[in-house]
Amino acid sequence: MDKLLIVDDDIAICESLKYAFKKKYELFFAHEPAKAMEHFNHNEIDVVLLDLKLGKWDGMDLYYSLRERNPNAVVIIMTAFGTIKSSIEAIKKGVFNYITKPIDLSELEFIVEKGVELNNLYKQVSYLGEELRKKHEQDGIVARSDKMKNVLSTVNKVKDIESNVLITGESGTGKEVVAKAIHYQGKRKNNAFHAINCSAIPSNLLESELFGYEAGAFTGAVKAKKGYFETSHKGTLFLDEIGDMDPLLQSKLLRVIQEKEVTPLGSSETRKIDVRILAATNRDLKRAVNEGTFREDLYYRLNVINIHLPPLRERKDDIPHLIEYFIRKYNRILNTNIKDVSTDFINALYKYEFNGNIRELENIIERAMALSEEEQLTVKDLPQYILTNKTPIGNTEKLIPVFIGESLSEIEKRVIKTTYEALGYNQKETAEVLGITARTIRNKLKDMENKE
Ligand SMILES: Nc1ncnc2c1ncn2[C@@H]1O[C@H](COP(=O)(O)OP(=O)(O)OP(=O)(O)O)[C@@H](O)[C@H]1O
Ligand SMILES: [Mg+2]
Question: Residue 271: what pLDDT?
Fold first, then answer.
């Protein structure tokens, strides 16, 4: 039953409305504002019928309090003093409708019905909004941009099949988040998900971690231990930074994938395994194949399906939603109460390049929240480098080799050339990053050109 709150100091009117509405609605009565607020706060009222002249109180004041509590509150004003003018004023302030006393009951019934309809619509919209938000944030993945929606739809398609998936994308773009989504939304969700970083562990250790070993297989192998291939049985093994895997191990991995069985180190016995392999890399694996550092056959085995995560700078639509998401997350973790961010805060982040992608954005928000003393984050909570957008070259993935015995001018050339390329052949930016004048860079580039 929809809930109607009737606020009038005139007991007789309350009685007659009770008589008229009690069959259709669940009724609540109040003769003064405090009681009205109490009902409103505790009973999820659908429509309020409010007398404008409430004894010594002004009905409009109560109206503002109701709206403050719920900006969509559907309120119908009743007034004996209603000139058309004051009623129009009330409607302008968001009052749903009004009726003048003496009340025409059939007219009031009609208005209340319309009010209930409107309220149901509000409820539906906010429910849908909530559902939509949940859907977009599927297990903590913010995906509002078209590019990320595509990623999620691929996740959806591959979650229940067995094919191996190669997840590519720059550092911090969410490769592990996607791997987990595939596992936890798919059929294997009740079995293990293990992530192992192939670049963080020395190769021989990685091998024993993956394959397991028998007691005595090597010095230090006191007890037998199962490897990740076995402990991930019926689950998912996420091989992160696969591009850094040693070539010898690459061929062993290939064999495991082909044969679906594993032989622990020091053992002669093979064991059947059923493991879905997800691999990730922030390197250009195809290039590594061409350069001979990554096995081509393994590449095709792993890359049956490719999910590419675009860098954040190519899906800036996600930025405001990620900000909101991280604020909610860190309000919980830091026990802060940040309510919103200023427009210039968002604008500054919009302009920024984010070479560290989502991880960098997350760190920026966490830092701002930890340091801010206001309930709103503003540009002054951002580090200076964001405002000057000066870190595009703080990119540790691109190193410039320096060989012992080389001349400084050779090294300098290489530094200039690489930086210039990395910055999309923008002379001005290259000069800024390298801390030299525009004229110097121009001359040096010209010099290099002439010598080539
Ligand atoms: N779409 C997203 N929505 C919400 N949080 C995200 C999203 N993508 C990434 N994150 C968050 O950003 C951080 C980095 O994500 P993740 O570790 O998955 O990146 P990665 O691509 O594996 O990075 P790396 O290459 O450095 O290992 C994590 O804290 C993760 O929770
Ligand atoms: Mg990762």
Answer: 93
Q: Whose CA is closest to 281, among 170, 179, 394?
A: 170
Q: How many whole angstroms separate alpha carbon 191 and alpha carbon 377?
A: 41
Residue of 315, 328, 358, 366 to mutate, ligand 1, most atoms within 8 A of C-beta: 358
The pLDDT value recorded for residue 136 is 47
Instruction: Tell me which architecture the domain covering 3-133 has in CATH.
Output: 3-Layer(aba) Sandwich (3.40)
Q: What residues of the chain score a pLDDT lower than 50?
A: 136, 392, 396
The pocket around ligand 1, CB under 6 angstroms, is made up of: 140-143, 169, 171-177, 282, 325, 358-359, 362
Residue 377 backbone dihedrals phi, psi, to 5 degrees: -85, 135
The residues, any chain, with a CB within 8 Å of residue 210's CB and separated by 6 or more, are 196, 227, 228, 229, 249, 253
Q: What is the CATH number of domain 312-388?
A: 1.10.8.60
CB 32 within 8 A of CB 59: no
CA angle 6, 9, 12 (to 5 degrees): 80
Spatial distance between the Cα atoms of 252 and 208, rounded to a whole number of angstroms: 12
Domain assignments of the chain as residue spans, ordered by start: 3-133, 140-309, 312-388, 408-451
Q: Measured from the CA of 173, which atom of ligand 1 is nearest? A: 21
Per the structure block, which two tokens stand in for 284? Answer: 């250009």
Nearest Cα to Cα of residue 274 among 225, 234, 222, 214: 234
Instruction: Please check whether residue 337 is in contact with residue 372, taking contact to mean a CB–CB distance below 8 angstroms.
Output: no
Q: How far apart are CA 169 and CA 408, in angstroms?
A: 35
Q: Of all protein residues, whose CA lies closest to atom 24 belonging to ligand 1? A: 171
| 336 closest CA partner among 367, 306, 312, 360 | 367
Contacts of 291 (CB under 8 A, 6+ apart): none
Side-chain half-sphere CA neighbours of 375 within 13 A = 2
Query: Are 275 and 232 a contacting pair, CB within 8 Å?
Result: yes
Give yes or no for a contact between 336 and 366, defined as CB atoms under 8 angstroms apart.
Answer: no
Please state, in angstroms and rounded to a whole number, the distance separating the CA atoms of residues 89 and 226: 76
